[in-house]
Amino acid sequence: MTAINQEVTKKFNQEYLANNKQLALQRGVVKNGITASAENISAHVNNVPVFSVDVATGKVSNQKQSGRCWMFAALNTFRHKLLTNYQLKDFELSQNYTFFWDKYEKANYFYENILATATDSLDSRKVAFLLSMPQQDGGQWDMIVSIFQKYGIVPKSAMPESSNSSNSRDLNNYLNKKLRKDAVTLRQLVADGKTPEAIQTAKEEMLQDVYNFLATSLGTPPETFDFEYRDEEKNYHIDRNLTPQSFYEKYVGVDLDNYVSIINAPTADKPYDKSYTVEMLGNVVGGKEVKYLNVDMDAFKKLAIAQLEQGESVWFGCDVGQSSTRDSGIMSLDAYDMNDLFDIDFTMTKAERLDHGESLMTHAMVLTGVDIIDGKSAKWKVENSWGDKVGDKGFFVMSDAWMDEYTYQIVVRKDLLSPEQLAAFEEAPKLLAPWDPMGALA
């Protein structure tokens, strides 16, 4: 290892102070901040929120101070259907309800993974990975499908938001404390040679504590409820004694097994037109396997366009913090010109960013439109879940080039896939390590 030479640093300082352009930039950046100083107005000019294909959606929702974007996005795709089919206005499905059951199932999933690795040393990478974050708010499409298929859904009126679903920091903090403490007990029971029956009995007692904790923090999920509403023409409707499962079947009725996750990960370890899964990624034990088909970006975009053109919005995952403006809702590679601001080349390829920890999927939203010019996509309409105070009343514009670089996943119907793509998806998936970037939770 080579230490910094103070004389070299002094030379750097002298060269910097002798450059009047850098000193002028320094004044602006120190006062206004990096992103404000680098913002490029041309990105706004080139990404006007007008689209040739535009799916009706209603108002945006707001996940507030929580990491529930993946379930908000999934529920929003259902909400779009309900708004149209039943002439509803300002209607939402309960995100708190799905949040409760996801937390409950994630606790059990963690316990089972702890038991599966109970004879591994504490410093093994898998055990360290599990204990670093026993559970969190984020998730994957197939994980929310597992919740929907097991527990159904309810209108927001049947289980409204709670303080702890809207701001989940304390809930996650104390639930993870509980899970780590239980990991100590479960590993010790295995070390002591206790029977599987005794271990499962102990686990059930832990799950009772988890249920109690969640019910106290989020409220008790309804088993039955009445669905009461007025449509946009002011007609009154009431449907009594529904269950979460019967509500889903009657009002949504989408066969979720007909939807597949498509990814674009151009790294050497993931050849295109192959299927993949991620070890220890899930929430419901025995639920839907998290599975992806990796395709090139041209095929990726064609699938998204096909679903939008048929009037159906598209759940997608991306790295939202890269080159995007929160206030105006522009996602564009030229939103900020950092290279010119600092005279430093920050450019990396998509594969290099994935391989070196510079990018992964951080946020899920919904594609609700696309602008097709001369047969090609130019920009995309994005429904976010950060409320209507950001972007264009909560909607963002994503340039086509930004999609190429920072969008990693879409969910589309199986019938849109070519026979070759469907066959590739149906193949036994390659198992990726738990820490693979394609295991990132939105």
Descriptive overview:
By secondary structure, the chain is of the alpha+beta class. Helix content is 43%, strand content 16%. It has helices at residues 6-17, 20-32, 34-38, 42-45, 69-85, 95-116, 125-132, 141-151, 163-166, 169-191, 196-218, 244-252, 297-309, 338-342, 350-355, 400-406, 419-426; strands at 53-54, 225-230, 236-242, 259-263, 274-278, 292-294, 314-318, 324-325, 330-331, 363-373, 376-383, 395-399, 407-413, 430-432. The strands form two sheets. Strands 1, 4, 5, 6, 7, 8, 9, 10, 11, 12, 13 and 14 form a twelve-stranded mixed sheet that branches. Strands 2-3 form a two-stranded antiparallel sheet. A hairpin with a 5-residue loop joins strand 2 and strand 3 (236-242). Helix 6 packs across helix 8, helix 6 (95-116) runs antiparallel to helix 11 (196-218) and helix 10 (169-191) runs antiparallel to helix 11. It is globular and about 75 Å long. The model has no long low-confidence stretch (mean pLDDT 97).
Task: Briefly characterize the structure.
With 442 residues, the chain is of the alpha+beta class. It has helices at 6-17, 20-32, 34-38, 42-45, 69-85, 95-116, 125-132, 141-151, 163-166, 169-191, 196-218, 244-252, 297-309, 338-342, 350-355, 400-406, 419-426, and strands at 53-54, 225-230, 236-242, 259-263, 274-278, 292-294, 314-318, 324-325, 330-331, 363-373, 376-383, 395-399, 407-413, 430-432.
